[in-house]
């Protein structure tokens, strides 16, 4: 590492976002997926420095801003976590919408500022609410999202037969009612949800091939979302927890996960366009979500979703590495 890494830290609904502000070398020109592959193959030591201990932790999350490739994009972003690089992150979009206005990356509007963010999954439009000239709440409209596999079942260890769906919301997730595992929110420890979700993710990864009409790089199961089962028509909040990458737990309701849930709910006739639902996280933070439009993604009936939340600043830092540090590239200890 030739230069210090500087960052600004934010959180959305309790889920951290470490935004890299300097220290990375310039990336070769290309598509966002090509940039993602380049960073993965050539600069992954920088991800480990930022995400792993002693500078980060097993549930740290990060964003690297890169040169946009798509016409109309104001900025482009690569997402990083404890295992690698994801294709979409809704909590990061909420934070980056505010960050882009605050840092002057886009000129502020009077009531709403539009920030077009290029992600590995495609272009995402964020709308930043302005109050007294300051950026506050952020909503975004997702890429086309869809129910990929419906009513799948498999036997998992001591839990027995588990039913689940797989849906895409910028990333693929398995969706399952936590009650099938004997779990209840507010009663059982987070570790029990992690064990159950991780078991389902690994089994589904091995058993169910995925595909995406836009790019094969998008066709991987990112994680599992365990829900309270309240997917039917209701004005009540519905709670979920997302366990993704290497057993990483999202403290927020998970923006791309909310999008995937909305796609599955719409396919099942459980939500109508423009009907708003409140999605609550494992710590009680909330996003609102609704079906923005009905569309298609290749052969799949699809929707775009509108997801809203708010992000806050939590700090800034400069990280360095000494040449003789034996733990220079970090480690994870659970």
Q: What structural category characterises the helix and strand content?
A: alpha+beta
- CATH architecture term of the largest domain: Roll
Percentage of residues in helical conformation: 10-25%
Shape category? globular
What number of domains? 2
Low-confidence stretches: none
Total number of helical segments?
5
Beta content comes to: 35-45%
Name the CATH superfamily classification of the largest domain: Diaminopimelate Epimerase, Chain A, domain 1
Mean pLDDT figure = 97
Determine the CATH topology of the largest domain.
Diaminopimelate Epimerase, Chain A, domain 1
**Which CATH top level class of the largest domain fits?**
Alpha Beta
Radius of gyration: 19 Å
Secondary-structure element pattern, one letter each: EEHHEEHEEEEEEHEEEHEEEE
Summary keywords:
Diaminopimelate Epimerase, Chain A, domain 1, 5 helices, alpha+beta, 334 residues
Characterization of the model:
This protein has 5 helices and 17 strands. The protein has helices at residues 32-42, 44-51, 90-102, 190-207, 255-267, and strands spanning 5-12, 15-22, 62-66, 75-80, 112-119, 122-131, 134-141, 146-156, 160-168, 172-177, 221-227, 238-244, 248-249, 277-280, 286-297, 300-309, 311-319. It has a 17-stranded mixed β-sheet that branches. The mean pLDDT is 97.
């Amino acid at each position: 590492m030739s230069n210090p890494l500087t960052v600004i830290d934010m959180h959305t609904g309790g889920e951290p976002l470490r935004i890299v502000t300097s220290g990375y070398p310039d990336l070769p020109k290309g598509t966002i997926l090509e940039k993602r592959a380049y960073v993965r193959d050539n600069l992954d030591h920088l991800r480990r420095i930022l995400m792993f201990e002693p500078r980060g932790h097993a549930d740290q999350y990060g964003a690297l801003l890169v040169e946009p490739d798509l016409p109309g994009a104001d900025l482009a972003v690569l997402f990083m976590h404890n295992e690698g690089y994801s294709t979409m992150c809704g909590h990061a979009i909420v934070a980056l919408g505010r960050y882009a206005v605050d840092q002057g990356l886009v000129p502020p509007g009077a009531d709403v500022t539009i920030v077009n963010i290029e992600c590995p999954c495609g272009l995402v439009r964020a709308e930043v609410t302005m109050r007294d000239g300051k950026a506050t709440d952020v909503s975004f409209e997702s890429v086309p999202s869809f129910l990929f596999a419906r009513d799948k079942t498999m036997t998992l260890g001591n839990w027995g037969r588990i039913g689940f769906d797989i849906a895409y919301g910028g990333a693929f997730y398995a969706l399952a009612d936590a009650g099938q595992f004997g779990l209840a929110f507010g009663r059982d420890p987070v570790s029990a949800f992690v064990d159950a979700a991780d078991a389902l993710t690994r089994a589904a990864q091995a058993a169910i091939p995925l595909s995406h009409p836009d790019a094969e790089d998008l066709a991987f199961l990112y994680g599992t979302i365990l829900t309270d089962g309240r997917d039917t028509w209701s004005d009540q909040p519905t709670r979920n927890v997302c366990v993704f990458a290497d057993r990483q737990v999202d403290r927020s309701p998970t923006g791309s996960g909310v999008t995937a849930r909305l796609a599955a709910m719409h396919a099942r006739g459980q939500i109508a366009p423009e009907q708003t639902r409140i999605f609550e996280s494992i710590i009680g933070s909330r996003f609102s979500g609704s079906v923005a439009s009905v569309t298609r993604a290749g052969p799949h009936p699809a929707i775009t979703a509108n997801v809203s939340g708010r992000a806050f600043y939590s700090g800034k830092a400069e990280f360095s590495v000494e040449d003789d540090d034996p733990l220079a590239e970090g480690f994870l200890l659970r």
